[in-house]
TrEMBL record, chains A, B:
UniProt keyword Lipid metabolism, yes or no: yes
Annotated source species: Virgibacillus salinus
Keyword Lipid metabolism: yes
Record key words, sorted: Fatty acid metabolism, Ligase, Lipid metabolism
Signal sequence interval, chain numbering: none
An example Gene Ontology molecular-function term: ligase activity
Protein known as: Fatty-acyl-CoA synthase
Similarity annotation: Belongs to the ATP-dependent AMP-binding enzyme family.
AMP-binding enzyme C-terminal domain span: 446-522
Biological-process GO terms, alphabetical: fatty acid metabolic process
Ranges where the AMP-dependent synthetase/ligase domain occurs: 17-396
PANTHER family found in the cross-reference section: ACYL-ACTIVATING ENZYME, BUTANOATE--COA LIGASE AAE1-RELATED
CDD domains associated with the record: ttLC_FACS_AlkK_like
Length: 540, 540
């Protein structure tokens, strides 16, 4: 067979040739843009020639600090397309982490959204490798800024060559992209994505039994483009010719609901927090969401009640998925098998679909308990180990690699069970698992049970040290508005009691106004533990 | 990213783990078998250990002369799974070609279906490399045979190790399979399939906009397993957990119709001749075919009338595809784009779907006319050139490689047009194209037009030498039963006249009882030309 490398550039070339009329609908600060893939292709070619002119060479890192919009999409293809590396930076991180990331990755140029400029202006003196800044704005004039040299994206494009070719000298194992995990402790860790990994991951997203990304889709990635390449959807949707809707900066649930109705969105992807927000919006407004064939949900476990609300109340198929920054990210996706569709009752179906699902073809997994691999019985817990062509094999220039990547397997730090069908269920993070009297208690199971209560908006369960049992669970609950005086600790415990062994029940239930979260919407349990400690200290 | 090779063995391992209960339903000479993927996995492991015991080493060729059934499927995974090469041999070829192929590939062992034994017994003295023969039979005793040493498949399996591991030392570019093209002239040409090519091709078959192979499918490959790996469906269907129905030896259209009804077949694949036969069966019988979501048709161009009959009369979606032995084989697949679904009228939709379709993501193509690349205007004809990771880069140890594989492109020998949408239409074989007075005439277009006539069962158009015009077209027609005395040459010409320029119209229409075909059901135009020559000589 021909030795043709799997690279990112030809994915956009395919869209230029076969889907030239299809559109990218992009919301920026000032307006809504509509571009065809022919436009995107031409602009990407201009951008490659511009990067070339600015001295960007093969392997150089091109940083972005931007929301989801068409210019960001163009950089997605231009940087790897010319052999450079797309480095998406999470704009929600602390200035300290942003400085660390840019210096550690040695970004040579930064593409920055207008509203992110102040953030970079404030830290510019600490950036050691950046030689140029490009602001992505609709306005014809450059904004006032202390950044130098500062270029206008559109002006640069104006000078670019619309026929510039994608590089033909890229090896499929060359780096195409990079993203730092928003770690809850310590410095962020960098993951490098190869061309090969991105192409194979895109095939995986197109599989009928996976996300089934299709030309007929109108795809709206709500997950930020600065977070694991928006789960790879911009690459797959471009390659397969989907219409893409990009909700732009600082979107609200209202805008999401409006866009779904207006553009007949068929598939959308995001974290549970986003869908909780959308659900509240749908309950208030009167939106037509009938075009949606799939809401993909990942990043952290979705409560069963959320799935139920989408599916039963709004007839929107809700698909649970699992992945991580280190896994490009798609690892599992929850779909019923054909015989489960026929044989299971509604409640069992929901239970099954609330799990994270089966492994995507192309990957391999092992579940390691205290004494080696555990049985696939849906009961035994173990840490999930992964292997495959879109799984990272190291953190970029980071000593912490040796703990996470051992003997050819990525140790995810996620504790799971797997049932006889091969369906994976996230039980906990290894570090969040509660070890009580030699037994393991899953904080995630307790959280899901609590969140099924009508009064509960969010619930997070943490471990506190215990003299007798080593650790004991404490539940932290945020109530829906209007329930503050109506339910208490005992209601919560009574509600979940039938589902658990006695020793699993939390020792206490505390009520908070909100639960601290990471920049990507995951519970920040470290901080929550501090709050709980403080709460008990104040009581003393 | 991890350096995990794309190899065939893990595809079956995936089915063992995630689809262990799903079934392979297999018709052999004597009976119908039902095996699960757990069974297939165990038997394949036994077979690998047996091959190992028989001295088969990495890279050795394992020949098969067999129909579509579960034992053949097991060899599909066992041979490449242990690092050997699956060499499927077309049992319909002449003894002379079969001898050539086995010696040229240097097959070390042959797996033979019971009814094919006499064919091999007759040529055994000419086989230079074969060290062992295995007969695949349901019977407990070996049949009488002059082949030595001759083993029973099931007895060998009985002695095998059910826990034998798939080889871990395979490079993804190592050969996994091989198949010889049933050339219409000269010796057959061998194509070697790499592990990487087969895995990527399987992803392609699973894409939502391609064949969308799914766990929920019941797939019946009618295309023989000795012809381009049954178009790769056994690999993809196993990987993605589809139920597989294997129609076994010497099936009839009746058996196909019965299996579709009995096993709720959702997808099936084969050449136009098969579907013409099935159509006649459906017209006679009273079958429930409502489970079918797709009939894939390739190998040669399907007449529009055939597509129409399946879709309009039987509500069976008919999907036109294009490929070749050299292309693993999937290259294009015909689906309407979402906006074509909305915008085109029924007739235009049918015209579009009767084309071969758009290129599968991952491949690249060029259309070369007399003066370089031709425009994508649906008018200009040129030879189709292909490039991609599942396109062959040579014929196995064959000097003819240099004519077909030039500067990194496979020259298909197929003449095509491509429209603005990127939809490819096969116009002819370069060698069947009729060159009349400096213009090109497509024999395929004329054939399709003739086949739309109610009285016509099959039509083939060939070129005969012409003193004035260089070449002129002659139509050869097979009529449906009962039409012999009712239609003649003028009816045919009047019927197609409105669709073509005057010089395209055939100079003559000859009526035959049948049209000679290759062993894979394609018109054998070389032989037809001889028959036509003979016809005119007899008239003199």
């Amino acid at each position: 067979m021909m030795q043709v490398p799997l690279t990112v550039g030809p994915m956009l070339e395919h869209a230029e040739k076969f889907f030239s009329k299809k559109q990218v609908i992009s919301q920026t600060h000032d307006k809504l843009h509509r571009l065809t893939y022919a436009d995107i292709g031409e602009r990407t070619r201009r951008l490659m020639s511009v990067l070339d002119g600015l001295g960007i060479q093969k392997g150089d890192r091109v940083g972005t600090l931007a929301w989801n919009h068409h210019r960001h999409l163009e950089i997605y293809f231009a940087a790897p397309g010319m052999g450079a590396v797309l480095h998406t930076i999470n704009i929600r991180l602390s200035p300290e982490h942003i400085i660390y990331i840019i210096n550690h990755a040695e970004d040579k140029i930064l593409f920055i959204d207008e509203d992110v400029l102040p953030l970079i202006e404030a830290v510019q003196d600490k950036l050691q490798t950046v030689e140029a800044f490009v602001v992505m704005t609709d306005k014809s004039e450059l904004p006032e800024s202390t950044l130098k040299p500062l270029y206008s994206y559109e002006e640069l494009l104006h000078t670019g060559d619309p026929t510039h070719e994608f590089s033909k000298t890229i090896d499929e194992n060359d780096p195409a992209g990079m993203c730092y995990t928003s770690a809850t402790t310590g410095k962020p860790k960098g993951v490098v994505y190869s061309h090969r990994g991105i192409v194979l991951h895109s095939y995986a997203l197109g599989l009928a039994d996976s996300a089934a990304v299709s030309e007929s889709d109108v795809s709206m990635a709500v997950v930020p483009q600065f977070h694991v390449n928006a789960w790879g959807t911009p690459f797959a949707c471009t390659w397969f010719g989907s219409t893409q809707v990009m909700p732009g900066p600082r979107f609200t649930p209202k805008r999401l609901a409006e866009f779904i109705e207006k553009f007949n969105v068929t598939i959308t992807a995001g974290v549970p927090t986003i869908w909780l927000g959308l659900l509240r919006e749908l309950e208030q407004g009167n939106y037509d969401t009938s075009s949606l064939r799939a809401v993909l949900c990942g990043g952290s476990a979705a409560p069963k009640g959320l799935i139920q609300a989408f599916e039963q109340k709004y007839k929107i198929p809700f698909i649970h998925a699992y992945g991580a920054t280190e896994t490009t990210p798609l690892v599992t996706l929850s779909r019923l098998k054909s015989y489960q569709e026929k044989e299971l009752g509604e409640e069992d179906k929901l239970d099954q679909r609330a799990k994270q699902g089966a492994l995507i073809p192309g990957l391999d997994m092992k579940i390691m308990g205290n004494n080696g691999e555990v049985a696939w019985d849906g009961e035994q817990m173990g840490e999930l180990l992964l292997r495959g062509p879109w799984i990272a094999d190291e953190y970029y220039k980071d000593e912490r690699s040796e703990n996470a990547f051992v003997d050819g397997w990525f140790h995810t730090g996620d504790v799971v069970t797997v049932d006889e069908e091969g369906t994976l269920k996230i039980v906990d993070r290894t570090k969040d698992l509660i070890k009580s009297g030699g037994e393991w208690i899953s904080s995630v199971d307790l959280e899901n049970a609590l969140m099924a209560h009508d009064a509960v908006f969010e619930a997070s369960v943490i471990a506190i040290p215990d003299a007798e049992w080593q650790e004991r669970p404490i539940a932290c609950v945020v109530l829906h508005e209007g329930f503050a005086d109506k339910v208490g600790k005992d209601d919560m415990l009574e509600f979940i009691r039938p589902q658990f062994a006695k020793f699993w029940l939390p020792d206490d239930v505390l009520f908070f106004d909100e639960i601290p979260k990471t920049s990507v919407g995951k519970f920040l349990k470290r901080q929550l533990r501090e709050q709980v400690k403080e709460h008990y200290n104040m009581q003393k």
